[in-house]
Task: structure prediction
Amino acid sequence: MGCGVTKSDQFHKQSRKAVTTLRAAVLIQRWYRQYVARTETRRRYTWHIFQSIEYSGEQAQIKLYNFLGYLMDNFTPSSNERNLISHIFRENEVCRDAEWERYFCYKNIEVPEIYSGPHLTFPLTVEQTVGLVEAFRNKKQLHSRYVLQLLLETWKQLRMLPNINRISTCQSKEITICGDLHGQLEDLLLIFYKNGMPCLEKPYVFNGDFVDRGKDSIEILIILFSFLLVYPSDVYLNRGNHEDHIVNLRYGFTKEVLTKYKMHGKRILKLLQKIFSWLPLATVIDQKVLVLHGGISDVTDLSILARLDRHNYVSALRPPKKRHKSSAGMSIDSEMDEDISAANKLCQRRISLAYPKAFGERESFQNRSLQDFSDRIKGNAVDELESRMRKQSIYNSGTISSEKNITASVSSDSINSDNPND
Result:
């Protein structure tokens, strides 16, 4: 009996241990699942906050630009006073590419003997490009003569590229895709250190936003453009929203170039404006993977994207002018449309000042954006303008008809006077 009780006690002890172990395992599993869930929630909220901070400044900039554009359109007497950008960014549509190349000519710029930075000869070699990377790693600066020469060669190369680059992994087996660099040279050097520099076996796709925010934007552009010239079939550059000279004014790239290249900075910026407008818009890999900056919508059509005249979109904030065909078949700017538009805007401005309308309650005011107010004011002005135009047309038609009646009566009187016997 005593032995039987002992075995029973041992069995109960083992059962209790098993239950305790199982409960502990369930508790640990439950705790671990809660920990993973909290970590994932924290990660998602952190990413959401980061995205909000990342794009809130740009969205605010666009709203401010639209609001100021509305003010300039409605409260200035002529279109010549609406240009808020510095004269170095004024677009001269008459100039051709050959004239721009003469303007960007670097041959009259001399390199002093005391210059200790890298020297370039064209066409570029791999050794020179690697030397540029090492020079920038050591905080050296490329002379403005070589910068202009490199940018000119890049501009010529980009003009030959399509809107959408199409590449394959048949030979390289893999392609490295890099996101926003934003002037962070250390990030680019780290990528090259871990993955190797671009070459025939290691193609790269750089998906826009090379400049702004960081302090080494011009160095990153020089490195990327150098590799593009050396490996045109293995290095691909997409345009981002920061490859835009108006955005560069706000986020630091313009100031960086003018600080580093005080004498020829304006020419460099103007040439970069040309280059940015010629950057390809997207890259398709193996007909399966689409890489472009900013994402797509449910109505994105690559066939339309491929037919765009991308160089006309110098800035996303300033869309290209409307153009029409002349009698000779050439595409020219619609100066008449601009004059009519200027006159309409002048009338709109007068109407908006003469017939102000309330915006509504205070609560509705707080929930509206600047663009909403701009659209509402513009809509009211357009309605007033149309009503006035209808009244004017009615008045004109009445005047013309009365003149016709007077003319007819005068002619009949003259006929009667010519025939006194009637």
Q: What stands out?
A: DSSP finds 13 helices and eight strands in the chain. Strands lie at 164-167, 176-178, 204-207, 235-238, 282-285, 289-292, 323-325, 331-333.
